[in-house]
Amino acid sequence: MNLTLFGTGYVGLVTGVCLAELGNDVLCIDTDAEKIATLQRAEVPIYEPGLQELIVGNVRAGRLAFSTDMARGVAHGDVQFIAVGTPSADDGSADLSHVFEVAGAIATHMTSFKVIVNKSTVPVGAGEAVHKAVATVLAQRWPGAQPAPGFAVVSNPEFLKEGSAINDFMRPDRIIVGLGESPEEQRAGDLMRALYRPFGHGHDRVICMDRRSAEFTKYAANAMLATRISFMNEMANLADRLRVDIEPVRVGIGADPRIGDSFLYPGVGYGGSCFPKDVTALQRMGDDVGLPLRLLAAVAQVNDGQKRQLVDRLVQRLGPDFSGQRFALWGLAFKPNTDDMREAPSRVLVRELLERGAVLQVFDPVAMQEARRCLQDDLHDRPDLLARIRYAQSPLDAARDADALLIVTEWQVFRSPDFDALRAVLRQPLVVDGRNLYEPRSMRALGFDYLTVGRNA
Ligand code: UGA
Question: Is the pTM of this model over 0.90?
Answer without folding.
Answer: yes
